Amino acid sequence: MENWRKFLNEEVNTEEEAAQWLATQIAPLIDAADAGNYMEPLAQLVAQLNSSDGVSPMVRALLSAGAEDAGGPQDEAIKTTITEIPAPQLIPTQGVIDLFKSVGYNGSVADSLRSVIDGVSGAPPILAAGNGGQYYIIDGHHRWSGATVFNVNCKIPANIIIMDPGKALLVSQLAIAAYLGGNKKLPSASAKKGRSIIGPGAMDEDAVYNILKQNIGKVIDPKAGAPFWNPEVQQVVIETGYGKSQFSPAEEKPEELQEFNQMQAAMASEGGLKQIASNCGKLAAKYASEGPPREIMPQFDPDKGGPKFKAVEPDLKVGKLNYKPEFRRIDKKAAQE
Predict the structure, then answer these.
(1) What is the DSSP string of 222-246?
(2) How far is CA 2 from the centre of its chain?
């Protein structure tokens, strides 16, 4: 009957059909996904959720009925926590991370840069998954890279989904679909080709340095509201000694009179840019493998059309997201009889 329905090109119209669709089209993808295999299952899941059946109000409503399905209340409850994670313990899952989106904010806002250099990112928490000393980024890659390109050991605030990271990627897309409801496709974001700092096509150190140098004084992140590498940012670089290992400064004046002259300031600026390029080179070497395109990654971002993670977290914690078979609701009347 399922094949016949597909042959007739009929859409999901009943809750029973929605439960069957989730069981045949979605459940196997979640079963197949894990930390070592998530790119293809994720791509297929996104395609299914954006299909005519996937946007069906019946399917989307049933995705929010985990506390009422045949598995019983809270059988799909997901534990979460929030913490700060050292950047080396976070693993990117998408295959492209844009240079400008990485350096743009902290390279243009002095106070934010100072915080990152001091060791803790001031950006809103990213979303990651895992349990232990290694976590995979689910959403917020550019908040992670925005700190890491300046300080490879920076601590990153993170909301953590405590489950297998591969499954967490797919479950996150299901949560967004459930939140959006019927007749809405999953939100998506793109990445500019040729400007990635990770993956097979990552820029090398020299390319990163040259493009940063060319964009000094230009606004490369509209959210920053200031030009990249502006005088206030360069002053933080000077005061903190950021990138000092990248150059040999002239002999300094006595402590009570210490002021960099113009040459020293220029050298400090160069050293800072070279330090960023060096850090990007380390990331490119460490994360050289291919990953999912940004277009299929979860977007917990109202600016992109998705919800904030905090909006869906309460439903995840009590098991309202319906991501495990059986997807059908309990027949309460029959159960009482």
Answers:
(1) TTT-S-TT-HHHHHHHHHHTTTGGG
(2) 36
Q: How many CB atoms lie within 10 A of CB 310?
A: 12
pLDDT of 243-293, one tens digit each?
988 866 555 555 544 444 578 888 989 999 999 999 999 999 999 998 999
* pTM of the predicted structure, to 2 decimals: 0.90
The DSSP 8-state label assigned to residue 256 in this structure reads G
Contact 154, 116 (CB under 8 A): yes
Instruction: Provide the domain count of the chain.
Output: 1
Judge whether 254 lies within some domain.
no
CA 213, CA 216: separation in Å to the nearest integer? 6
Could you tell me the residue range of the domain that residue 67 belongs to? 2-76+168-187+318-328
Rounded CA separation 244/280 (Å): 17
229 in a structural domain: no
> Could you tell me which of 194, 28, 169, 9 has the C-alpha nearest to residue 92?
169
Phi, psi of 137 (to 5 degrees): -75, 125
29 belongs to a structural domain:
yes
Strands 126-130 and 135-139, how do they pair?
A: antiparallel
